[in-house]
From TrEMBL:
The keyword Heme does not apply. It comes from the Bacteria. Its EC number is 2.7.13.3. This is histidine kinase. Its main location: membrane. It is an enzyme of class 2 (transferase). Residues 439-655 form the Histidine kinase domain. The chain crosses the membrane at residues 12-32, 197-219, 226-243, 273-291, 303-322, 328-348, 355-374, 386-407.
Amino acid sequence: MDSKKTIIAKNWFFALSILLLIGGVAVIWMLVTPATYAPVSGNEIVLHENEGIYFVNDQMDVFVDENGRLTLADIQAPSVAKQFQPASGKSAFGLTAGTYWIRTTVINQSPIDRWVIRVNNSVIEQFDMYFHNENSADTGQPNILEKVDEHFTSFYIHLPVGVPETIYMRTVINGSMIIPIELMDNRTFLGKLKNEYIFFGIYYGFVLMMAAYMLSMFIFNRISAYLFYSLYILCFSISQLVWNGLLKEFLGTESKLLAFLLRIFSNYEGIDYFFFISCLWFGLLFLGQILQLHIYAPRMLIIYRLLNVSSPLVLIASLFHWPGYATIAILYESMFAILLTVSTYWTVYRGNVAARYVVMATIPFLGMALPTILNTYSLMQENFLTHYGFQVGSIAEYIMFSIALSYQLRQTQLDKEKALQQITMNERMQQTRNDLLQNISHDIRSPLTVVQGGIRVLIQGIEIEPEAKARFLKTLYDKVLYINTFIDDLFDISNLERSRDTEALEKVSFADWISSEFDTLASTIQMAGLQCQVSVSVDPRAVVAMHSHEVSRVLANLVHNAGKFSSKGGMVRLHAWSENEEVLVSVEDEGEGIAPEHLEVIFNRTVKVAPNSSSGNGLGLSIAKVIIEFHKGSIWAESQPGTGSRFYFKLPADTKTAASLT
């Protein structure tokens, strides 16, 4: 399968695919970007029945606890309370770890007093809530009703009807300070949780299927790219399990495995980073093979190898909690993104078809992941894509990369098949060469044996009658002449098979040329004691670009064979005509004909037309075939034993251009 024939290799299809993918990403953005949260007004969140989800960030104030030592009493002190700043809908407050205090006021005007407050950040290390209203005294202790068993970042709280409730929240995060907070009634929460678990079930089921498929492809084909991609999928999925809080939910807080991971990585953020960097490393190894940088971008190999060597160092930094690890991880991720972008588009430019699949995979992946990145820098409000964009984009990525791997596997198989065909062709060529040498040896050895015997007779001085001596010397001369002719024909075939300059072809009015050739050949045929019938019905406008003397040689060879195998007084017919922008010529005899098993190989230089014939060397038809094929024509024969033979050849002709006789 030639890469130029694959649909993805067509520039128009590739460009159309890029536009469709970008358009699809834009449509999804428009569908999910508008917030679906219940509207709020003023500085308080007023709760009503059946109004869905309230986005707390719209109506909350935040305060940075730089040392992480302040208590609720400290926060409520007038000097500190006035330092709170409105969040104004922001959910991201910095890229470094720390402690934040959050304050919001809620007035419950619905008949429901049991609500759910949820923090959409599963790698949060600590989350405490305190309640204060005018009718209750502050104890300074967390006042959480109960933690939701189904979701570890959600909490049930009691909100008295009609009483303003000030809620203080203390969050501790060891990574980026992202705190999207939602408030909803229990029915809305359970409905949302159900939809999320359906989404997670579909996503992780698809992920496991893809990982198993890639691993099986590696086992059966032993192509390391499949193994790297399978490990990439698994590591990325584990990092997303941590980010979505599912690892904590599936294992449970009492899990020994979870305790072991936390002991190694200190916190959930560390676990997430470790597996995310691991997935980038395996992705790097995978892309190195898919993009074939050593062929299409050798200068980028230095950066690729440098990044590849630094990958285990970054992982070690996460294990031992090196100072500035977060900065190292961000730098590594940035270098990976730059290398991926530059190398992919460069290899596409250089003609790597597989790299086009990589481009098509990165568009939906980055397009879906971009909201998460923008949300991290507070450039986009919290929505479905900011939280689950990586999963949505990775589905399209897995599909595209699996196609790229299939393409790469197909190319590998084709290369193997081509190599096998080349080996088979070489074996056939070797066999043909051996057959040719055997025939050459036979054709030369026989006359040489006669010449050798004759020379021995002369050396020994054996007396020969004058008349017999003349015949004897003539026989020796004929044998030497045969050998010389045979060598000359072999040399001609060698020269004719070499590439020649087609610009040296002359444009010939074929009707006039073939009529002149037939007249000459007819005289030769009649002088040999044979009859000749000539018929020319060539379009007078037909112009053929050819070496006229070489095509004349073809005609002479065909006529010579016709005369050689015709009985005395037999008929030789010469016919030329036009058909479908081509000119055709036939030479027909009434000789003994050719056996069917010989008809298919008579143009092979290793086979004689008549193997039992003592005249001719069997190379004339091979020479004719080389000449006709050089002129972009074809030559063939038809015959039945006992009814003669008919040899044909045809050449392309131009009837639209006036003949230019030379």
